[in-house]
């Protein structure tokens, strides 16, 4: 796990225990609508939709909600919103770079809410291109640890295009190129290995180590941004030790 942010572990654990279930459901439903609109409502013929539906099901989103979202997105049912993806860039404490991915039907509202959250939590918005070069678009598949070893997972996905496998403690993270996301996910299925989620993500190429004070400030900013309805994902390039995470999490 050398060079890999412990934040990946924290985000995984946070998602598994997310108390704001309603907000999580809404974000997953948005993803389904967009995937259905872009590639059609056939789950088997639309890999992006397949992954969005699987993720929603694994997070206990009711089947009826999922089916209605597919119909709205594909146009089979009225009521689908014109969701637009917008990426904002910014800085947090200690110069940490942030990418804020929004999925919104109101660009002005999203911009205002992201700016306000940034300012109130000690961050600042940056011009487009200011920090995005510090991240690479990657495919990320999360595999729950059901007694498998890291080598078991690696052997299953190596020939499918996986770049690396990281042990998150309770789960494994498989990194690949975005174009290899479906082959990697399929290789896991063929090997009889259950996966938790398969998404495209932004991973940092350069990380900023944080002490307790810096971690506390950055995590507060990330939480404030993730709490916004229009925000789907927040990516950051900080790295913290297990000791710092434990200290901050205990507060």
Could you walk me through the main structural features you see in this protein, from its secondary elements to its overall organization?
This protein is α+β, with helices and mostly antiparallel strands and 251 residues long. The protein folds into 3 domains: 68 residues, Integrase, N-terminal zinc-binding domain (Arc Repressor Mutant, subunit A, Orthogonal Bundle); 84 residues, YebC, transcriptional regulation domain (Alpha-Beta Plaits, 2-Layer Sandwich), CATH 3.30.70; 70 residues, Alpha-Beta Plaits. It is built from 9 helices and 10 strands. A 4-stranded antiparallel sheet has the order 3-1-2-9. Helix 2 runs parallel beside helix 4. The radius of gyration is 18 Å and the shape is globular.
Number of helices: 9
Task: Determine the fraction of residues in helical runs and give it as a percent range.
Answer: 40-55%
CATH architecture of the largest domain: 2-Layer Sandwich
* First-last Cα distance: 26 Å
Structural shape:
globular
Stretches where pLDDT is under 50 for at least 5 consecutive residues are none
Radius of gyration (Å): 18 Å
Helices, strands, pairings?
Layout: H1 7-16, H2 21-39, H3 47-58, H4 63-74, E1 84-91, E2 97-104, H5 107-120, E3 124-126, E4 135-144, H6 150-157, E5 162-167, E6 171-176, H7 181-190, E7 197-204, E8 208-209, H8 212-226, E9 231-236, E10 238-239, H9 242-249
Parallel strand pairs: 8-10
Antiparallel strand pairs: 1-2, 1-3, 2-9, 4-6, 4-7, 5-6
Which features characterize this protein?
251 residues; alpha+beta; Arc Repressor Mutant, subunit A; Alpha-Beta Plaits; 3 domains; 4-stranded antiparallel sheet; 10 strands
């Amino acid at each position: 796990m050398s060079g890999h942010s412990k934040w990946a572990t924290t985000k995984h654990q946070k998602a598994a225990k997310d108390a704001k279930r309603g907000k999580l459901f809404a974000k997953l439903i948005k993803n389904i609508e967009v995937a259905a609109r872009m590639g059609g409502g056939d789950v088997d013929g639309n890999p992006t939709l397949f992954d969005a539906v699987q993720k929603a099901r694994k997070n206990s989103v009711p089947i009826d909600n999922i089916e209605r979202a597919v119909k709205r997105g594909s146009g089979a049912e009225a009521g689908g919103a014109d969701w637009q993806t917008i990426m904002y860039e910014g800085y947090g404490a200690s110069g940490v770079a942030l990418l804020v991915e929004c999925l919104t039907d109101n660009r002005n509202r999203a911009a205002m809410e992201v700016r306000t959250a940034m300012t109130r939590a000690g961050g600042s918005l940056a011009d487009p291109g200011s920090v995005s070069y510090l991240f690479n678009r990657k495919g990320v598949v999360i595999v729950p640890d059901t007694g498998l070893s890291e080598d078991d997972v690696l052997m299953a996905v190596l020939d499918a295009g996986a770049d690396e496998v990281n042990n998150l403690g309770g789960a494994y993270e498989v990194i690949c190129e975005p174009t290899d996301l479906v082959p990697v996910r399929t290789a896991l299925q063929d090997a009889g290995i259950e996966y938790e989620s398969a998404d495209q993500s932004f991973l940092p190429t350069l990380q900023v180590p944080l002490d307790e004070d810096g971690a506390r400030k950055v995590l507060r900013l990330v939480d404030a941004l993730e709490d916004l309805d229009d925000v789907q994902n927040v990516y950051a390039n900080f790295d913290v030790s297990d000791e710092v995470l434990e200290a901050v999490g205990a507060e």
